[in-house]
## 1
Amino acid sequence: MTIKAIFSTIAIAAISTMATAQTTEFTVKGLKVIFKPSTKQTVSAVMFFKGGTGNYGQEQEGIESLTLSATTECGTSKYNKDDFKDMADKYGVNLGGSSSYDYGNISMSCVKPYFDKGWDLFAQAVTNPIFDEKELGMLQQKLISGLKEQEGDPDTKLSDMAMSTTFKGTRYAFRPEGKPETMEKFTKDAVAGYYNRTLLNVNRMILVVVGNLSIEDLKTKIEKAFGALPNNVVATMDAPRSFQVNANTLNSEDRKLATNYIMGVMGAPEATTPMFNAYRLAVDILSDKLFEEVRTKRNLSYAPYAYVSGGFRPFAAIYVSTTKPKDAVTVMVDEVKRLRNNGFKEIELRDAKNQFATSYFMKNESTGAIARSLGVAEIKGTWKNEDTFLDQINAVSLSQMQQVFKDYADGIKWNYLGDAALSDKTAFEMKTK
């Protein structure tokens, strides 16, 4: 190991240990709160709502995204839409709401001197949104227009194909952002009812705050703003689990495009286990290999890559857009097979760890990013996994990485969007074993 790598490892361990000591959790009137002090000049607060697509059926795809967007876009009982926006603009307060597969959120970020103003807007958006019918209708049409634009985007279409086929029959086949045909049916009563009866429940909510604040002052603010939240029984929600792909399949759609879009989905271990971090490192190395072999050496694609999605149903994906799909897929499978059967090198693991450390610090440069990372980790199991992330990455061994890649790079669910005449099934049937 080089001197640079040694010092990098020491720094990672020291910084992550220090971060663990700073973060605290407490409960205010039944609401779980995670607080991380920061010396930054911005303060961020994120209210998480557990469940995501698990909170509704397929006929309601998009209702949570619309509802949470509306909390900061359609006014509150204290501020109408224009007053809310004017105050946010005046004090530089950034607010928004969104939803994904496993959770939704309402977020706020502002500079420290205007935290009281930002907190007031945030608290009103969470506790007293009015879902003004006119404003909600305008927001609805805006979101529908965006969804229709996405329908023409090949990458979006490919991603939808991959999720709907891979997770057919489960809530992960839903589109959290919705579809035009479902989005246009939602009424004010449906949206308000969904928020007040499903989401606004202390047993479904987690508050994360990151900033240079007094913890006692923060507790007072939280109790005043959120001390009277509904406290209703919540049905048992999904828990993280592993996902396995044991055989190759091909889902294709013929479309005349300038290039062909391909995504292969592989399994992944449960996102809360140490082996998941080993798998992330392995797939990160795979991504570098795909770039080298597919683009640099053979010029078959501009940007092939691989990644791991760490939701409650995790998976790995390999992606390429190319005019020569058979050649590109053959090279990609060969790389998966080579790493699966011949193993990784110690230097590859070390470099991958250093890349993760760099990306971790870059990702968490803002208080908003830190708050989101802590909240997502808590929803999956515990925020402590985020605070000790670099320690966990640094602890991954070569044998762990080799074993987990062998366990989950077993089969590939392929998705192909493009010229059907170039979709050679023999390439997609190639085994990784």
## 2
Amino acid sequence: MAVILTIEDDPRFARLAAKVLRAAGHTVLHAGTALDGLRLAEQPEVEIVLLDMDLPDLDGKVAAASLRTRLTGRGVPIVAVTARDDGVARRLALGFGCDGFIAKPIDTRAFPHQVVSYLVEGK
């Protein structure tokens, strides 16, 4: 299964996402800030990044662009995970360098499949 990095400042959501993804057989790394996430993203085993677009330390645009630069050539998808579920938020996330978008609150049954779909699309 996949090694998934979640960059999420809400501890409740981070725990829920990790629980759901681990139950599906994935390994989950977690960063509570964008800066910690940028450091963890450099680990070669990371296969996908789930990025909260509303982090306290870096704007989502800056975090996504920084991740995109650090992950260049590795084929690691970056998926925005945010409570702002509208067409504008989706377009912005994709424009900032994200490969996809998952809205919060998540459907815990569908979430692992949504995440894996971005891995499959990238291959």
## 3
Amino acid sequence: MATDKNKTIDLEKSLADLEALVEELEGGDLPLDKAMKKFEEGIRLTRGCQVALKDAEQRVEILIKSAGSVEQLEAFDSDEAD
């Protein structure tokens, strides 16, 4: 399975960029044309994040299936971690 490194996004950076965009748009100080461009950029970032999350979810499912079954996995007990 070949992956295109150019299409791989940095999820954390994209989320931070999206958060900054939302703050700018919520400020209400942008002219309409700039606000629309920021909104379009936000949509692009959101779609990229959705693709990255879906890819990660699929990879986790593959790892779980290759490990046997879900029943073999133990639930994480946060009390034991302390």
